[in-house]
Amino acid sequence: KAGVTQTPRYLIKTRGQQVTLSCSPISGHRSVSWYQQTPGQGLQFLFEYFSETQRNKGNFPGRFSGRQFSNSRSEMNVSTLELGDSALYLCASTYTGTGLGYTFGSGTRLTVV
Amino acid sequence: EDQVTQSPEALRLQEGESSSLNCSYTVSGLRGLFWYRQDPGKGPEFLFTLYSAGEEKEKERLKATLTKKESFLHITAPKPEDSATYLCAVNFGNEKLTFGTGTRLTIIP
Asked: What is the pLDDT, as a whole number, of residue B2?
């Protein structure tokens, strides 16, 4: 059974650019969440999607956005990148959509220079 | 605000030396507590889910327990391959997990 797949694995971007990260959940999972992980803040919740609807959003600026497609695949976008956006971005999926039993992908390492 | 606190931040043990990691949380409608293991450069790997006080789960050298205010991850006779960061996360009744900052465990051969 394939796990959660995130692409790309690594990205280097320049300040001011925008970036799109992709996440393919485990087959049958309808809920996808995104987290940002940094050494200083740990894992911080970005947002959660279920059946193409955003149900919850963390305390991040509007530059961070996401969406989910009908096949449950999800993308997150960060516009006008700042140096502080450098982090490991993790996607997690679950079948039940109740915040329980999330399986994480390996993440996308974003470096902003 | 719902919070999760893990201690210690880092722990170095000799191979075979048992110990426990702690995860405490604000008491406000816990719907589930999760333990994950994370290796450098990888995503968190699921270990256990605990739902109610008194519950215990075991897997190889690891045992997780839950009380009304905290959880412990007991590591018995650890091996070097147990070295990793152990993360605790809590679902407080919404669609997100609130994570602690983790305990970085190093097992010395």
From this structure: 81
* 3-state SS track over A28-68: CCCEEEEEEEECCCEEEEEEEEECCEEEEECCCCCCEEEEE
Task: State whether B95 and A58 contact (CB < 8 Å).
Answer: no
Determine the straight-line distance between the first and last CA of chain A, rounded to whole angstroms: 37
Phi-psi region of A74 (alpha: psi -120 to 50; beta: other; left: phi over 0): beta
**If you average pLDDT over every residue of chain B, what do you get?**
93
Predicted pLDDT at B75: 98
Q: Is pLDDT of B31 > 80?
A: yes
Residues B11 and B65: their CA atoms lie apart, in Å, by: 19
Contacts of residue A102 in chain B, CB cutoff 8 Å? Answer: 34, 46, 97
Q: Which of A46-50, A97-101, B15-19, B35-39 has the lowest average pLDDT?
A: A97-101
Backbone phi, psi, residue A56, to 5°: -155, 145
**Helix/strand/coil for A109:** strand
Asked if the Cβ–Cβ distance from B44 to A99 is below 8 Å, we say no
Set of chain B residues whose Cβ sits within 8 Å of the Cβ of A104: 36, 43-46
Q: Which residue of A has its CA nearest to B44?
A: A104
Q: Note the residue count of chain A.
A: 113
Tell me what the mean pLDDT of segment A4-16 comes to.
Answer: 97
Contact assignment for A33 to B101 by CB distance below 8 Å: no
Residue A73's contacts (CB-CB under 8 Å, 6 or more residues apart) are: A22, A23, A24, A25
